[in-house]
Amino acid sequence: MFNGAPGNGTNSRGNGMPCVNGDGPLVHRIKPDRKQSSPMAPAFMVSAPGKVIVFGEHSVVYGKAAIAAAISLRSYLHVTTLSKSKRTVSLRFTDVDLVHTWNIDELPWDAFQQPSKKKSYYSLVTELDPDLIAALEPHVDVSPGSPEDVRRVHRNGAFAFLYLFLSLGSPSFPGCLYTLRSTIPIGAGLGSSASIAVCVSAALLIQLRTLSGPHPDQPPEEARLQMERINRWAFVYEMCIHGNPSGVDNTVATQGKAVVFQRLDYKKPPVVKPFWDFPELPLLLVDTKQPKSTAHEVAKVGELNRMRPKIVASILDAMDKVASSATELIADDKFDEKEEESLAKVGELMTINHGLLVSLGVSHPRLERVRELVDHEGIGWTKLTGAGGGGCSITLLRPGVSREKLDKLEERLDRDNFAKFQATLGGDGVGVLWPAILKNGTKEDEEGGMEIDLEKFLNAEGTEGVEKLVGVHGDGGEREGWKFWRVESL
């Protein structure tokens, strides 16, 4: 089993220097192969969001309910189909400097095509096959000249991709280029690997023509079924990366909006209930840039629970009540995400949740500094998200906050070396741009839009450049071209 992954916190260049997410050194020095003749299909793109835990960190470990929601920071996968004569598949994950090409005819198809091993696009895979893992090992020894920590990340990315590619594909699969960029900070607990997993899963299923839509008139039952197919294979990708994932991150990245999840039995997957009516809320996401260890923070709470079981039990019960209160509040017909009164009630619950997490000892001075700066300006309600001990905080923004106050906050955050992202909570899940053409305010708009070719995609500068070029949302709202599977509650 391969462990560690792009979503597990390693993001460095071959010389040991960290990469700015979405702006690694490969972005500006990779030149795409010259255009192939007679493409079999137009280039297309798939995008999926990251996630944050809004309520219930740590208490979820003890069987309590938690809420996770999609954020508007996303991964973008560009897929180019090559001419029939080109028998290679290439993977370019620029954020972690992974570039590798395989000869399709030399991959271990025999192992994956055995009748007892062969899977269908609708199969439910709950564990990885040891024989298939062994068959892939000679093909995932990528980046031999890189440091071991980088090689581990690259091996995992290659392994997860190939496991899906060979499980879903066949020896007649066309040659392709899969190029991924992301605006999600890596290793910050924001579901970056799950976002990638959903992109890869959806792209392969689209190429197999097993998904119809998404389109506005699609029946909800059909949309649910197709998202479930994407989610099942994204979970397989996550198993390749993490071994025993909860399934929460890939579910949020697939469906968008939010989910309520609860693990009542650690021998079984958690119960995950979609929260289809979760509203879109204004969010300020701050990365403290303080490295954290989820295992360490979970162990810390475990030790406190061993020493003070009654006190910790009462804190966990209170966190459970906060999560259930938030669910009831947001699901109420009277809840209006545009009114401060409604947002304030959610914000108060976020503040309480953070205080309970502080009492468990999982905050950090950097997280408390963010809260101090936000509270001083009266901009919103802040809590840590994820395991704590560093990582990220989320702030639910008050409506109508002045630009002056936001600028002052951003200046102080910059001065203290925080990374900030204004985002939306509870947005869309997986989306498709077919073909890869968007209107970008250029003269090409009059002819139908700008074709997003590989060179443009690779050379977009940083996360802002990626969003400007291919982002699912522009200044005027949703951009024409991107389509999403959307389901409302029954």
Automatic annotation (TrEMBL):
Provide the residue span(s) of the region labelled Disordered.
1-38
Q: Which pathway is this protein assigned to?
A: Isoprenoid biosynthesis; isopentenyl diphosphate biosynthesis via mevalonate pathway; isopentenyl diphosphate from (R)-mevalonate: step 1/3
Kindly state which reaction or reactions the protein catalyses.
(R)-mevalonate + ATP = (R)-5-phosphomevalonate + ADP + H(+)
**Any GO molecular function:** metal ion binding
Q: Which Pfam families match?
A: GHMP_kinases_C (PF08544), GHMP_kinases_N (PF00288)
Task: Tell me which residues make up the GHMP kinase C-terminal domain.
Answer: 340-411
* GO BP, one annotated term: isopentenyl diphosphate biosynthetic process, mevalonate pathway
Could you name the Gene Ontology cellular component terms for this entry?
cytosol
Please name the top-level EC class of this enzyme: transferase
Q: What is its EC number?
A: 2.7.1.36
Kindly state which keywords UniProt assigns to this record, in alphabetical order: ATP-binding, Cytoplasm, Kinase, Lipid biosynthesis, Lipid metabolism, Magnesium, Metal-binding, Nucleotide-binding, Steroid biosynthesis, Steroid metabolism, Sterol biosynthesis, Sterol metabolism, Transferase
Start and end of every GHMP kinase N-terminal domain? 168-253
Localized where? Cytoplasm
Q: What does this protein do?
A: Mevalonate kinase; part of the second module of ergosterol biosynthesis pathway that includes the middle steps of the pathway. The second module is carried out in the vacuole and involves the formation of farnesyl diphosphate, which is also an important intermediate in the biosynthesis of ubiquinone, dolichol, heme and prenylated proteins.
Q: Which family does it belong to?
A: Belongs to the GHMP kinase family. Mevalonate kinase subfamily.
- How is this protein named in the record? Mevalonate kinase
Q: Which organism is it from?
A: Metarhizium album (strain ARSEF 1941)
